[in-house]
Amino acid sequence: MAEAKMIKLRDVAEAAGVSQGTASNVFNRPELVREEVRERVREVARTLGYAGPSPKGRLLRSGKVNAIGIAAAEPLSYFFADPWARRLLTEVAEVCDARGAGIALVSVAGGKHLAWSIESALVDGFLLRCGGRELLVEVTQRRGLPFVALSLDTSEPDVPAIDIDDFGATRMAARHLLALGHRRFAILGIGLGPGPGRVPPEEVRATRFVNVRERARGYWAALTEAGIAEDMVPIHAVQNDGGNVGAALDLILAAEERPTALLAMSDLVALEALKALEARGVRVPEEISVVGFDGVPEAAESIPPLTTVEQPYRRIAERSVSAILDDDLPAGREILPLTLVVRGTTAPPVSG
């Protein structure tokens, strides 16, 4: 059996007795074509089985897609499962909705499909949820489209990035607890290995993750101002998803001088800590205060509601969308401040 002929625009134009330019206008700029001609061309197209011009081809010819790709090294489920990613995606979606722009989610989990995913996405540019330059940045640079790195955890002066003031935020969190009268602290640190276990300060400084180093440095800066030395503040490694926070807390709570305050490097970890403390009969904030980091919606809904430093999600979304759609890329790393949100997990320590 002979293969069916693919109907093209020129076939429609010939059958309708019009030029190919007129036929193209019927589908792309119908206001330029008389109504009777439009109807004739469309009727011929229906008869021949012509579905219309390729959206991809039309968009590529126009030079603009009016869509943004959001790429991460994790599976697509990460965008919906992780509280930080979910909140940021929501804000970006609302900003894009207001501009009539679209979003394409791109996962490069597994590595081997990384180049294909980045190179095939039909977008004007990318927002990269980066775990480091080697994961996403170099492939995106080869694609030749503009991009902005979000949560870039390496020092890359030539990479346009929109980031947050990790140092200032954690210093603010620690100062809040100091102002309440706390003097015994422990830190739940992410990006420091699988844990659980205490991590020496020199290992924290040596981690390749800039955001982890900066958060630790912010805690230390505030505590040092109050005369509390770094080696007096244990940093315990926990998994990023909070999976072993309970085991870390068992070590922390077994200390001869139990901390009266916990500083968590993410809200996800802080929320897991609240659950683990409740399961162990430790009251928050009566026996121990907890401060998180991120400002995810779940922080306001926990029992008690979590004190945290909140990222400027809407500002990050507006700035990053504008960077791509308005050709306004940042020159290097652009740093945005966070806000301390005081809720029910912090209070003065019980004396004694």
Structure in a nutshell:
InterPro entries: HTH_LacI, LacI/GalR-like_sensor, Lambda_DNA-bd_dom_sf, Peripla_BP_I. The protein is of the alpha/beta class.
Features:
Peripla_BP_I, Transcriptional regulator, Rossmann fold, alpha/beta, LacI/GalR-like_sensor, 352 residues, six-stranded parallel sheet, HTH_LacI, DNA-binding transcription factor activity, 434 Repressor (Amino-terminal Domain), 15 helices, 16% strand
Helix content: 40-55%
Kindly provide the name of the CATH class of the largest domain: Alpha Beta
Largest sheet, in brief, is: 7 strands, mixed
User: What general outline do the C-alpha atoms trace?
Assistant: elongated
CATH-defined topology of the largest domain: Rossmann fold
The appropriate CATH architecture of the largest domain is 3-Layer(aba) Sandwich
Quaternary state, please?
single chain
Please give the order of strands in the largest beta sheet.
7-8-6-9-10-11-13
Number of strands: 13
Word description of this protein:
The structure is a single chain. With 352 residues, the protein is α/β, with parallel strands linked by helices. The chain has 3 domains: 46 residues, lambda repressor-like DNA-binding domains (434 Repressor (Amino-terminal Domain), Orthogonal Bundle); 98 residues, Response regulator (Rossmann fold, 3-Layer(aba) Sandwich), CATH 3.40.50.2300; 146 residues, Rossmann fold. 43% of the residues lie in helices and 16% in strands. The protein contains 15 helices and 13 strands. The strands form 2 sheets. Strands 7-8-6-9-10-11-13 form a 7-stranded mixed sheet, with helices on both faces. Strands 2-1-3-4-5-12 form a 6-stranded parallel sheet, with helices on both faces. α1 crosses α2, α1 packs across α3 and α6 crosses α15. The radius of gyration is 27 Å and the shape is elongated. The model has no long low-confidence stretch (mean pLDDT 88).
